[in-house]
Amino acid sequence: MRPDGRIRFNLDATRRWLSLGITRVELLWDKRNGRLAFKAAPDADHLAYKLSVSKEQNFADVGVKAFMKHIGFPSAKKTALPLHWSEAERMFETKIRMNFGKRTLQDDDPKARNEET
Questions:
Q1: How do the domains of the chain map onto residue ranges?
Q2: Closest to 49 measured CA to CA, from 19, 28, 79
Q3: What pTM does this model have?
Q4: What is the pLDDT of residue 98?
């Protein structure tokens, strides 16, 4: 995650997207479990995020600033997120933990609080 609101996929992830012919991705957010995923979307899906691939094809960006602001992800500094590929789902996913003082996003979910007790 970059401070300007773009998520940058590294060379390996970019090669995976390109090898599959993927140009658009859906953004999936699981607030309760703090999981974020980027799933391959059809080219015709103009509601999906467009992958912007560098000229050298060594990275790809997705502009998600408004969404990250919506979920409260701090964007003041560059943050590396480890991605895991799911072949069956054709998506990269990661787990993010966002601390707000001593609280996390998971603390805001009453269902999560009830299950922990």
A1: 6-116
A2: 28
A3: 0.77
A4: 63
